[in-house]
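Re-run requested by the PI after the first attempt was lost when the workstation crashed. Everything re-entered from the original request form. Ligand of interest: iron/sulfur cluster.
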Amino acid sequence: MDLNILIGGEAGQGLKTVESLLTKTFSRYGYYLFSSKDYMSRIRGGHNFMQVRISDEKIDGPDPGIDLLLALNEETVEIHRDDVNEDGIIISSSGEEEDDIVKIDAASMAEEINPKAVNTVFVGTALKVLGLPITEAEKVLEEHFADKKSVIEDNKKLLKKGYEAGKQLFNLKDLGTKKDRMVIDGNSAVGLGAALAGVSFYAAYPMSPSTGILNYLAGKQEELGIVVEQAEDEIAAINMVLGGSYSGMRSMTGTSGGGLALMAEGVGLAGITETPVVIADVQRPGPATGLPTRTGQGDLLFAVNISQDEFPLMVLAPKDQEDAVYQTFRAFDIAEKYQIPVIILSNQFLADASKTIDRINLDDLKIERYFVDEDQVEEEYKRYKYTADGISPRAYPGQLKGQIVLTDSDEHDELGHIVEDGEKRNMMVKKRAKKLQKLKDNDLCEPDYYGSDKPEYIFVGWGSTAGPIAEARKMLSDEFKVAQLAFGDVWPLPEKTIREKAENGAELIFVESNASSQFARLVRSETGIKADYSIVKYDGRPFSGREIYRRFKEEVK
Amino acid sequence: MDLNILIGGEAGQGLKTVESLLTKTFSRYGYYLFSSKDYMSRIRGGHNFMQVRISDEKIDGPDPGIDLLLALNEETVEIHRDDVNEDGIIISSSGEEEDDIVKIDAASMAEEINPKAVNTVFVGTALKVLGLPITEAEKVLEEHFADKKSVIEDNKKLLKKGYEAGKQLFNLKDLGTKKDRMVIDGNSAVGLGAALAGVSFYAAYPMSPSTGILNYLAGKQEELGIVVEQAEDEIAAINMVLGGSYSGMRSMTGTSGGGLALMAEGVGLAGITETPVVIADVQRPGPATGLPTRTGQGDLLFAVNISQDEFPLMVLAPKDQEDAVYQTFRAFDIAEKYQIPVIILSNQFLADASKTIDRINLDDLKIERYFVDEDQVEEEYKRYKYTADGISPRAYPGQLKGQIVLTDSDEHDELGHIVEDGEKRNMMVKKRAKKLQKLKDNDLCEPDYYGSDKPEYIFVGWGSTAGPIAEARKMLSDEFKVAQLAFGDVWPLPEKTIREKAENGAELIFVESNASSQFARLVRSETGIKADYSIVKYDGRPFSGREIYRRFKEEVK
Amino acid sequence: MAELKNFEADRETAWCPGCGNFPLRTALSEALTEMDLNPEQITMFTGIGQAAKMPHYIKVNGFNGLHGRSLPPAVGMKLANPEMTVIVESGDGCSYGEGGNHILHNIRRNLDIIHLVHDNQIYGLTKGQASPTTGYDIKTDVQTHGINAEPFNPVRFAVGMKASFVARSFVGDREHLKEMIKAARQHRGYALIDIFQPCVSFNKVNTYQWYKERVYKLKDHDPSDYEAAVRLADEFGDKIPIGIIYKEEKPTFRDRIPFLGDRALVNRKVEVQDMEYLLDEFK
Amino acid sequence: MAELKNFEADRETAWCPGCGNFPLRTALSEALTEMDLNPEQITMFTGIGQAAKMPHYIKVNGFNGLHGRSLPPAVGMKLANPEMTVIVESGDGCSYGEGGNHILHNIRRNLDIIHLVHDNQIYGLTKGQASPTTGYDIKTDVQTHGINAEPFNPVRFAVGMKASFVARSFVGDREHLKEMIKAARQHRGYALIDIFQPCVSFNKVNTYQWYKERVYKLKDHDPSDYEAAVRLADEFGDKIPIGIIYKEEKPTFRDRIPFLGDRALVNRKVEVQDMEYLLDEFK
Ligand SMILES: Cc1ncc(C[n+]2csc(CCOP(=O)(O)OP(=O)(O)O)c2C)c(N)n1
Ligand SMILES: Cc1ncc(C[n+]2csc(CCOP(=O)(O)OP(=O)(O)O)c2C)c(N)n1
Ligand code: SF4
Ligand code: SF4
Ligand SMILES: [Mg+2]
Ligand SMILES: [Mg+2]
């Protein structure tokens, strides 16, 4: 069982509420969800839509076909009608009632009761059409409008009216609530991961599609007792959090590509001062302003090579919403263990899509801060002491009695003082480089491998394409021996698995949301392994499994 | 004949004047020069030195051995004594007169005449020691102090006193003035190239070691009738020059790595708006503040991958001071022909070193502006018209009667208006990518190839290492069959020559001033060709031919 | 003859119905028409935001650049072409937040430009976070307990900087706004107009009504009186003055470049072969 | 007991002999000693420039960050540890040029910090280009015909912004400077001291002599009188006032975060397993 619902309308028409009510309801009836958003860069008008996919099994990504089209305006029918599957249904307020169109006069129903709640009618009709009861939806309504009690009754009435106006055309069952699941979007997942990791300071400048992280954490400031500060610009944001980290707090910032560009010098500062910091880059197409509300994976090489000269840094790309929670938690650990900046490469697709995931298991999560013990410090504390693994004892100002902590953007000696001589420079560059080597040796995650043991084709992807590639792989597995390598850690590059797999003669197909297949270029640069094919996409829309399937057929086989 | 002079002393002691007087004098006696600087990041005190190498043949780089040490203070003798060649000579004011020390009491000579002109004594003594007459030096003094006529006589007297106090130990000849030569440093060379290309607007924020370009052009503003503006920060600088270029002027900015980081978003803006711009990045070691007055080549991959997402850009690295003039001129041509940003990767070694070069041949230099002809414009002017080669007709506001020029940082249609749909996005990304392809096909310079036809070893370098590598190659050519590939254009990468050469089985030795051998990584990423060895250096000091020779012996053979 | 319709861009806007950006556009188009200007004589530099989309909705030369960077590119235009009427236009977030350093230093440069700030006291395009001008009484998804910093008073700031022309206006008074725009163009030098522009979607406090109840038109104020201007600039409560708060004639950016005169650098003719003399210095 | 020698850093400076940075350092060390502070109770945040090298030459906790970015990292420290005495220190170029946007917005934040600007009216470390405060009568290698922009008056700017503490001092008057530093520390909130600091290498106009002839100490001025402060801030000619120009008690950054109280976030204890409730919202 796999069903796709598309909810379309203008910005400002309240699509989000419809989506939220429906997905919560589905979820409580025990369905797995995947709900993604296609937004224009505007506040009102235009055409936006959300795709809600539900199933009784785990779902990995969106699907372009439509089983049920909820058209909040006429344009939605015009634009999406062709994508409605053969036995698909349209719920619409306009046009004629046809075989595949359930017409409801939502506006007049709402007029008497509450015109602002017109959308709730659609929710009711949709539930009826799908064959689900209305009871859970009523509870969801109550929770959703808990702040505005006055409108709950109106909404309940309209829900019922919509329900009654529909007719049952599908046959969904109540599968029973599952307590061990969560539905979460990628931005909240990063925020949640940070909260669990004990972030005490988040400073950022608003930028789509990263603002959700800021919103999530801002909403939690009071209960967690942390501070979220809107900076005057991204340069301030990165420098603020570096100050926070230097002062001993776990600190983080988030932005999108343009903001990351402004932070570049600051990332280098984190590198040379060895100040831990976590930076989320929620990618959108660029360069410059580009397509502000769309998705892409165009920042990979920029992030890996960010800032002048060289320094150890880690770049990782969560594969889905669940991974985003754990990887963000891990990012803080790695940042502090190695005293380096860690960039989390998310993107609009991951950030704005909600997915049903297994409930996060907190037992697996341990926080370690890696500060130096007072009794291990010699007479004069050396912030940049040369050590075998390159990791120096870290302390924050005020931590060690009678000691000061000095950190410097210039090349420096063990105490943190400016130096100019070549020997000391060499020692410090080597000290920093050792950290990256240790990270490579000890803490890198090799990509997940799925599919055939002796594949003819291996799809290689990184970050949030993992789900859509998995779908395509499954679709192709009847005809071909296919496998998948899903990278999460991308820099430093985990080389072992891909080397092994490449040796066995399978053809490598890189699937990426950028124009030049950047990950393929990175893999080649580090390992010499060459992509046999690249399936790339840069129109700002996410891959679906179906599209990868089709493009494989067109471009590869 | 090849002779090395090291002039050492504190910052603020006037080393530059000594160097300037000596090099001008040598030059007029027909010698080739190479003079490089080793500066600390301070205004007074510390230890700075300059190395002046003279020869009757062209010189490619510095040499660490010292034939004549001009020690303006005692510390200089201590620091450099060990590097003085076997029959080398020291001129010093302190210590005992020894076989290899010519002691002059410069201070007391100057005291009666003009204590501020004490350094001129050293110039006089040096000329005597070398065996050169004093007459040209007197003329040089007159020109040097043309603004301060009052001191000319004092200086002349001290020059003479110094001369008389010395004794002839070398045997240099007057080779006769050569009119077809120039002595120029790399920053002035970039400035000169820009001036010749018709730059009308240069905006920058001061940053070592790029400030020399700013100074050169500022000094010419009035006579050229151009404007040089100090921006409030580097973000302003890049955006100012983009506004200038949009308005129809050839415009340029210059900075070092930290400033380039701040410009990253603006470089992307140039990319998507297709606004030509030339940006000089005079590299120094980083990250962050690093070693502000030293040299390096650590910004390569950062420059190539600058800014979020992808767009066509060119990165080129002048090989020496002469090349810097021509390449800067060419950078403007390519920027306007392809409507792209062009980054010139210089570095402190190139920027601050002066070299004798052939007089620039202006006959070879042609300026073309590539603006659209009024009569080729259709009814409604389309700034981003789709064309076969991706290059759209460029006009500036006010150029075309009754037409407006619209340019946009968002993804846009042919008119420059914001678009959000995927198809138009794809068209524009492809249009921009075509330009890079055309540039690759038509305007890229393959690297220079020197040395053995059937080499065992090929040294591969880029930018300003060309000279030192050439020296090493010559030194090694008695023992081995060695060759050299000297890249100037580095992005897009010219692949033809290196592919050919790599096929013939020679071992490739990459020589670079950065820690991870970035150019080798770039070459591998684009061609699959792997470095057999990398000789890297990141202590902030330039390579000398001797050092490459030695490291070849240690690390390769 | 200039005609209003010349400035009409044949495009649907992405603005919300009822947004203060519409009357602002109308006033601007009318002012440009009444000043007898044609689209090609005007260049508009904007940043990113809802306000910054203006060059797509009014027909003039347009450089829609980066968020926060509306001012710097205008410097280039004023050198290339001093005859061009240059309008820098953007939101309060773009102009005073991300772009703060540029307004600080371009007030000092005193370019001959008009700077129109759509001050809706909110970040519109990114859905309602506080801007520098957001008041104490607003809570947002980020500023969950209100703002952590004192609201920025752009007029007091600009007067403190002795910007050469500082005005405030309100889209609810179209004639006043037109008058200000015309005065700004007439003024030689940098002219800032901070324009109250209600955002009907995200700012539920500073509404049309809110402004209407507070703004009053200046009468008998001498804008060259610095101390009076300082006092007026500080009025931001129950009563808020609109009009020209401060004005001072002083050298413009171009005036300070002595050799520039009235030359348009875009017309500069360059002959490489005439520059032999540049080589001689390196002999 | 605090002792002056506690602050002595055992290092040679990279400053020029005779530079105004030396007396500034002396005054600062003495003020810190007299306030009975120890090195570990103080953190200094600086940018890049000659002034910004201070944490290498005085023994306190130091974060020597990026050019122009001395202020932002201090925000983090004030949240982590409100007891820490935080000094932000840098040159005029770093603080008012590259860092302009941060001073603009941190005045609004009103952190409880001391901001010492070494105002030598020049870019020292990069060898003598104009800074925002460079006067009309200076020509440099870049400003070959003088500056293209009006000199920035930081005190007038800060008063116009109603910064909570605005003072000016001069390294030539050590007692005065010490007094200002002490007053700045006593003040709750952001305290700017613009300090005249002659650069003997690159600024041949604004010398010790030049300042000595002009500065006069404020007497009987009430720093809470805004209009008087505005008038004084505008005095920058033959006579230049030094002292506390403006002062206003108002909520600090931390005060505006209602749930923060006096907690030091660096001491926040986090138990992952106690955060189960965060997951429930996503049921
Ligand atoms: C470097 C960068 N940072 C952030 C953004 C995201 N962004 C776009 S518009 C905007 C704020 C808009 O507010 P304002 O300038 O007041 O304009 P309004 O939409 O209110 O008219 C922001 C933060 C961006 N585009 N670029
Ligand atoms: C991003 C960046 N841009 C430019 C520089 C170069 N830079 C270093 S110090 C400085 C100016 C210093 O002037 P000021 O702040 O007045 O300090 P002073 O040396 O006069 O004490 C500049 C431009 C830099 N380090 N980083
Ligand atoms: S969000 Fe606000 S400012 Fe933007 S268009 Fe809508 S109403 Fe206008
Ligand atoms: S350059 Fe000027 S400010 Fe810097 S140390 Fe020397 S005298 Fe002082
Ligand atoms: Mg706004
Ligand atoms: Mg200074």
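Saved to the shared folder this time. Strands of chain C lie at 42-46, 61-64, 85-91, 114-119, 165-170, 191-196, 215-217, 240-247.
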